[in-house]
């Protein structure tokens, strides 16, 4: 299968407002469907690449807390 999920998600979200992206994330989490997880991963990856170490460490601590 020659489907590039990163490209598709990036294209679908390009130009969206923070509110629009929040709606996408909340819908994916609420629906809880496995096939939506890669899209959330792409969103996280995009954020990770632009975040500085302080932001990354903060989020990592929050995630670690969520998995306790």
TrEMBL record:
Induction comment: Expressed only in the forespore compartment of sporulating cells.
Keyword field: Sporulation
Record keyword Endoplasmic reticulum present: no
Domain of life: Bacteria
Main localization category: other
Compartments, record wording: Spore core
GO biological process: asexual sporulation; sporulation resulting in formation of a cellular spore
Keyword Isomerase: no
Family listed: Belongs to the SspI family.
UniProt xrefs under HAMAP family: SspI (MF_00669)
NCBIfam families for the chain: SASP_sspI (TIGR03092)
Protein name per UniProt: Small, acid-soluble spore protein I
Encoding gene, per UniProt annotation: sspI
């Amino acid at each position: 299968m020659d489907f590039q999920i990163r490209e598709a998600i990036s294209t679908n979200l390009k130009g969206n407002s923070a509110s629009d992206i929040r709606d996408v994330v909340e819908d994916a989490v609420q629906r809880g469907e496995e096939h939506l997880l890669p899209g959330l991963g792409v969103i996280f990856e995009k954020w990770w690449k632009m975040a500085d170490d302080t932001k990354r460490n903060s989020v990592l601590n929050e995630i670690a807390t969520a998995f306790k």
